[in-house]
Amino acid sequence: MRITNKMMSNSFLADMNINLNHMKRKQEQLDTGKEFKRPSDSPFRAARSMQIYSEIYANEQYNTNINHTINWLDTTDSALDNLGKSLSRIRELMVSAGNGTYDKDELKAVKDEISEKVNEISQILNTSFDGKYIFGGTHGDKKPTTVGEDGELISGTIGDNLKVEISSGVVIEYSVNANEFLNFKNQTLEDKNKKAVKLDANGNTLRVNSDSYLIDESGDKIQYNGGAISVSNDGKLTDKDGKLLKVDKDTGKLLKEDGTEAGITIDNKITTTKTFSDDTLSGLLNDIIKDLGEDGDISKVNNEDLERLDSAISNLLSVRSKVGTFQNRMKGAKNVNEDQNINLKAILSYNEDIDWVEKSMEMGMIQTVYLASLQTASKILPPSLLDFIR
């Protein structure tokens, strides 16, 4: 077959075009730092990158959810801490009101401060974050509590707890609503005859009447040193002169402050059962204020009301412990999420990022071939009419 000048020229131009396309591809890779610019450059890698990008975007949204939840829980924990301080202050006031030396004016001052604490508690329960009431549940646009004209705490519309998705298919409940501490179980200890008993400071189970005096199985006050023995709310025993007493844990013998026996033995190992009754924080606070009033029963303040308040505080601590558990889980989820993001970005980089050294060497080789082909063609291709014109 005869090789013509035209055939050689066409072949040279076709090869040069291929060379230029390769050079253009390498130049794009060096410019963008990516293996491909369009799906047609590498369909498999392009599809793989699209999948990884989707996972990264979803993971970033989960991270946003987690951060928002952590901030929400931090606000919740602070609010519960303030609520606990308010209830503890009410408890201090109730204990002080049990002092027999308080006159009417002092009791009124205690009552007024507790009434003010009701407003403070309502304000705490109406704490908001990001435009929503944190204790309102799914009804976060409505106040969980209000204070009535008579100073009573009123529960509003409260929804279910909120939920959040922290990873693919993992949805958890993270909020607490006001009902969890507005409603609580009042725990009491009772003997076999359904009569209330108390624990002393050493853990002995004691029979105590409604006036907080130590009694025997028949219900009579136990006398010592010419008077009845009283039991404080923290389990301390005192005689009529205010001297401390204690019960021997093994023998049940009453001991004086110096450790000597007082000559009295009591049943300090009573079999008890725990009973629970439904109660509300609103009803408790109303009863406390009522019992501190002129027509109230001041004896209930340091007995029934105080026991109910202790149950409310214990319930609040349980709720706060629950919030702490949520916080720990969110911090763990955040660490997992960040690790997943790092891994996904590493996989994405491996899939689409170029090796700069390798691509620079390839670009140099292509340029060398391109220049060499131009020089070779200039010597091999026969002269054209332009050459003769020159």
Task: Write a structural description.
This protein has helices spanning 5-32, 43-97, 104-125, 179-182, 281-292, 298-301, 304-352, 356-380, 385-389, and strands at 128-129, 132-133, 145-147, 153-155, 163-167, 170-173, 183-190, 197-199, 205-207, 223-224, 227-228, 230-231, 237-238, 244-247, 253-255, 261-265, 273-280. It contains 9 helices and 17 strands. It folds into 2 domains: 55-187 and 275-340, Up-down Bundle (f41 fragment of flagellin, N-terminal domain), CATH 1.20.1330; 192-271, no CATH class. The protein has 390 residues and is α+β, with helices and mostly antiparallel strands. The protein starts with a helix and ends with a helix. Helices cover 52% and strands 16% of the residues. The model has no long low-confidence stretch (mean pLDDT 84). Belongs to the bacterial flagellin family. One of its GO terms (biological process) is bacterial-type flagellum-dependent cell motility.
